[in-house]
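Sequence in, structure out.
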Amino acid sequence: MYLRLIKVFFKENFSLRRLIGTDISKNKKKAFLLGLLILYALGVFVFSFGYLFFDLGKVLDAMNMLWMLLMFVFLYASAISVMFVLLRANGYLFRYKDYPILAPLPIPQRTVLFAKTTVMMVMVYFPLAIMCAPIAFSYFYFFGFSILRFIVFLIGLLLIPLVPVVIFSFISLLIVRMTAGFRKSNLLNIILMIAVFIGAMMFSFSFSFSGGDNPLLGQQDFLTELGEIYLPMQWFVEAVHDLNFVSLLLLVATHLLPMLGFIVLIQKMAHKTNQKSVTIVTRKNARKAVSQVRPVFESLMIKEVRKFFSVPIYAVNCGFGPILMIILSVASLFFKTRIQTFLETYVELGVSIEIILLIFIAFSISSVYTSAVSLSLEGKNFWIIKSMPIHPTLIMNAKMAFNVLLTVPVAIVSLILFMVSFSLGTVTVLMMILALITTSLLTSAFGSFINLHFPKFEFMNDTEVVKQSVGALIAIFGAFGFMVIDGVIFYFLNRVISLEPTLLVISFVNLVIFCLFFLIVNQTAESHFRKMKA
């Protein structure tokens, strides 16, 4: 029965149509554009992240410390597993939408949970492989390649995520159990998940700033200390670097057994949690419903806000950028000296503090892509919107406006706090605000444009839309592409003119591109709505 469930689950989660939300075989143009997107995304990753670790491998090889790359692999694989589980374990294990279908079937809960966990682990291994491949290439390039060592490396890479998955799946389960009895359980779930992420981020920053003038030294010291405390990291390095099979056996025993024990022990709690998730908590003394008349656009905006906070994965994934801006800008008021010390490395390379802050805030704005997925999140209820006497352009404009509202106010407040911390010029800050506003407008309009062309109404859980849809992928890498265009403009113009006029030109270019996408969305929204089927 396990194999049959795996076959069904894999077909549901990994079919080409499920992944991209549309049948590209019927549209050769979309297939071609999607292929270009994948090549672009891989190229950006390989030539940025890959080059970074290749250069690091060269330095570590000269220092006879190449084993440090294996520690980076262990750390990154664990971090990816933690991030994935906190964001997705809820929908894969404890609140999966097909529970009402699977629960009455004569299938043991242990088998269902094991199959669900297998699917989740495949989803963990995919980004893990992409992230760790450049590091592994750097290691084997400088150390030398052997088939036996590569096999040991793959075994270790498969084992590394198991312990983080067990620990943080249990944490995710506790969060779900703690919030399941409340009427506003989704909001509490969002708050607790964000609190965990903020705690992990602050813990990471405490080590990033501990290396004196060189922040990378702090990271290397942290890895060394972590390896001394957390023995599985040592065992992984010894198994691969020294071909120590005793360490490999210890790694297998300490990772497989907890995973098997987790599946056995957690099945009853997962079953009860899924039961609670389909229970609707109501008020005993509810107030009378009051009908309010609002303008259509305002009602659409309120609908977007409610949708945002009703889907935890949506709120956490698209709300983390604004939260990060606020946290770091407030932290700059109290840790000004530490942050300046960290930024001095980049200032010495000719990059001003203003540009570093601008890149950071623009990056945070680009990580918010609600307009690229909000239409898809309507799912099977899309027909309701489609049948309402509201023009499709107004609906799309409301989704764009919500994305801007989610980013621009936070970006302005953060930039003002940075201005106070680093004594930035008023005119410069105003030009930076203008550039950030046009960046938000551009990414919001581009997201709506993408969601019109790549909607995904068929999904088992909201994670598929927010994290796995083509719309989300294009929106993220497309926004990074616009940042690259702005960077090229800045590189050539700032040589001949000062910073403020350069930012004015960048704002003008962003505004022109925004107007182009805005006009296309407004002119084609009605025709696309007629073609879409939920």
